[in-house]
């Protein structure tokens, strides 16, 4: 028994050893495949999510500014188109043309970036929520500088000198509100595209303010 | 004695691995008698030879601490990446899928009704499949839809053109209480690509529509109204990039036709 059991015992001891080695041998490729699959899955995941983390999000300053400025611009386009159609002053017709085309083009830039970022062109947050201390700057849903429905009705009905003065006055106020928003965006945003367009708005609208003031003086004196 | 040894070695290995194939009949009595016998002395007799083996096994049986830490790290990383992927996919979901999921919203784009899909400009009053209309041939002039609040019914022929531009049109039953109208007004004022007006013969208190989608409710505070606006405003435009201004700003039926042009087929 002792002689016969010894080889058996030795075999018993050897058996798990052999089994472990074969198991290790068969586990090797499985582990390699698993690592490969996990690596590929991680790579795809990182690839998919990195753009999401680097692009401004739905509640970002950038998205809020682009959405709100699109709405703000749209009203400038609306008022300028009215003046372009109805003003009897060639200089005002041209400045209205300039404002309408520039701002409608800028709306296109802003909407395209939102689309690139996979964001909706409209947000669910209230207007100006991206700007700190903006509570109270919204009156009846209107952002700073925006004309009221009554003012727009008056502009549509006006003609001659009254129309020219009304348009220039409303646009002056509109530019002041817009410049303030754009300055805040330059301050708060670190996206180079948003900074670029906001800075260009500040510059061009400040220049236009000078022209509007000159035209107002000219029209009022007429 | 040398022959049973090598015989038993493979047999015992095979039995442990494949749970006995053809061996039991030939050595059933032998193995059953030997195994308990072998194991008994194996623990004692083979102790000297095997003891170094067992600690090796324990040491080789994984150090779980670092594995657990690495596992947690990987889980957290996968979770963060998974959320990123989810958010990216969710964020870029098509607006039509989103609005279709709102219970009660009717998707007319899916129906492929030629009359609703008609985008042509036509003069004079038009007939529409739904009330209020959600699409179809319309007047060349849109209704102004830059957050315009109209206090009287507007012409369908102008309004449908605004829907083509991506406007959300909120209509309410004529004679709705002023405080309820004001709730709706709050959703429109200052919001480009929206407009609202009372609607004659509306079957619910409120109907909100864009081109091809409509939601009706009796409750002006129904959160689904806001959800509908959020999912559809501007993105529902058939002509992206076009403005909502420069349109007609007057109320009342088309020109002096004296009819609002609506035929209620439904």
Automatic annotation (TrEMBL), chain A:
Highest taxon of source: Bacteria
TM stretches of this protein: 30-50
Pfam families: DUF305 (PF03713)
DUF305 domain ranges (all copies): 62-215
Chain intervals for the UniProt region annotation (Disordered): 1-24
Bias-annotated ranges (Basic and acidic residues): 15-24
Record keywords: Membrane, Transmembrane, Transmembrane helix
PANTHER family: SLL0788 PROTEIN
Stated name of the protein: DUF305 domain-containing protein
Species of provenance: Paractinoplanes ovalisporus
UniProtKB/TrEMBL annotation, chain B:
InterPro entries in the cross-refs: DUF3105
Biased composition (Low complexity): 16-39
Region (Disordered): 1-60, 246-266
Transmembrane segments annotated in the record for this chain: 67-89
Keywords, alphabetical: Membrane, Transmembrane, Transmembrane helix
A Pfam short name: DUF3105
Protein name: DUF3105 domain-containing protein
